[in-house]
Amino acid sequence: xxxxxxxxxxxxxxxxxxxxxxxxxxxxxxxxxxxxxxxxxxxxxxxxxxxxxxxxxxxxxxxxxxxxxxxxxxxxxxxxxxxxxxxxxxxxxxxxxxxxxxxxxxxxxxxxxxxxxxxxxxxxxxxxxxxxxxxxxxxxxxxxxxxxxxxxxxxxxxxxxxxxxxxxxxxxxxxxxxxxxxxxxxxxxxxxxxxxxxxxxxxxxxxxxxxxxxxxxxxxxxxxxxxxxxxxxxxxxxxxxx
Length: 242
What we know:
Pathway: Cofactor biosynthesis; ubiquinone biosynthesis. This protein has nine helices and eight strands.
């Protein structure tokens, strides 16, 4: 594996989340939106793949919010992240919760070299818009999942509405997340995601939007609205791969 691929991380992004590591599980902290959308994300994934008994990899697991939820549904979960402080928080919370998750500080590209075609399901949520080379991450996820297995991504669309909602609204007006959390230029259009999935040997099987109502302060999934946040599921083409 090339050194370039091994360094597909933005050190400033890692530092940003590590600085908040102790607050991952504080539901009134900067991570409140993640806690609020986590049941939606978990239900969406479980509805697609039936998590119980599945071997699952959560890429960019952070403090373990999604990883724990999937483990509680009966999945055998491995969570990877490049922020050691995040993983320390995740490990401590798992001990307190009595949930078994295998947390590792390793780049997804490196794990893909070590364990190709090892997982039934790979999830990579709210991460692609924070890395220098999203395609490299998608390719590694494809390499890690078994033929016929599912990969689930989530990210943010790139258009004027997403700028207004995800940056102006969420960061400055509603203060849902800290200012500077997102870089508009790193947002990813569904057409780009679909193309990258195809290049990586993944066939998109489902896509849905995640919308927020600032009046009711409730998040929900909405199939026909992928203007801002969206989830995308893709299946590893049988016989493709590494």
